[in-house]
Amino acid sequence: MNNAVQERFHDPRSVRPAPGATVVSLDGAVLGEVAGVNGIYFRVASRARHSFWLSTDQILSWSLTKVTLALTSAGLDAYRLSRPGGEAWEPPFLEALQDTLLTRSERLRQREQMEEELREQRANLRRA
Predict the structure, then answer these.
(1) What are the pLDDT digits (tens) for 58-112?
(2) 17 near 84, Cβ under 8 Å?
(3) E strand or H helix at 23, and its extent?
(4) Phi, psi of 22 (to 5 degrees)
(5) CA 78 to chain CA mean position, Å
(6) pLDDT of the residue at 89
């Protein structure tokens, strides 16, 4: 990664915050430093509070020296993790989601079936 600031709307799996980079909330509060990276998670070490983990999905922008979160300091607690892991887009969760997704043709067949059932229900209501 170069020194240029990278912006949000990234794939969380492509973000690798640099260890030692300052972590700042959206409202400008300094939260600590990047102490480690594990997959799509990074650990924030702070003198003021216990270390915690966040998903890289919460990053608004980053460079080699600074990580700005898309969270305010007040909203941080809802996203703090005690350890990395458990996001829906990570294995084994990703494979489970992919198994449940329908192809375009399957969705079309499902829609046609639902519309046919709806027509039958309307016809039955008219007869009743």
Answers:
(1) 999 999 999 999 999 999 888 888 888 755 444 455 555 555 566 778 878 888 9
(2) no
(3) strand 22-24
(4) -75, 135
(5) 13
(6) 46
* Count of beta carbons in the 10 Å neighbourhood of residue 42: 27
| CA 11 – CA 20 distance, rounded (Å) | 22
User: Which residues make Cβ contacts (< 8 Å) with residue 56, sequence separation at least 6?
Assistant: 12, 13, 15, 16, 17, 40, 41, 42
| Helix intervals (H) in 1-128 | 93-100, 104-127
- What is the token pair recorded at 4? 């240029």
Q: Domain residues of the chain, as ranges?
A: 6-87, 94-127
Rounded (5°) CA angle 73-79-83: 120
Query: CATH classification of 6-87, choosing from 3.90.50.10, 3.60.10.10, 3.90.79.10, 1.10.10.10?
Result: 3.90.50.10
